[in-house]
Amino acid sequence: MEARAEAKYIRVSPRKARLVLDLIRGKNAGEALNLLRFTKKRVAHEVGKVLRSAIANAESKAEAKAETVDVDSLYVSAAYANDGPRGKRFRPSPMGRAHPYQRRTSHIVVQVAGEETTKATPPVS
Q1: Over the Cα atoms of the chain, what is R_g?
Q2: Domain total of the chain
Q3: Beta bridge partners of 7
Q4: Is pLDDT at 121 greater than 70 in this prediction?
């Protein structure tokens, strides 16, 4: 069972987001959530939301196929941040000049995977 979640247009540079994503890649999903809770980076909150969404997507995907998924067996199989669109701005500088700068955005993707599970048995009436 594999599921993914994506958050687009997050106002953080991809380079800073990758620092946090490198911490959770390959870890157990519960352990990764706990690690993100105590990480002192602003983007850790956003990554946590994406990870919780990926876990929920795995659960709903399993329900649709009438399977059961063990949330404790899920792990972060892939986590990466890609460049989003850049906002180009100008800052005033001395002597009537202007210096350009860019406000970067990221698209954050987290994939969770788990071992294949058996089909759920229908309830007995």
Answers
A1: 19
A2: 1
A3: 108
A4: no
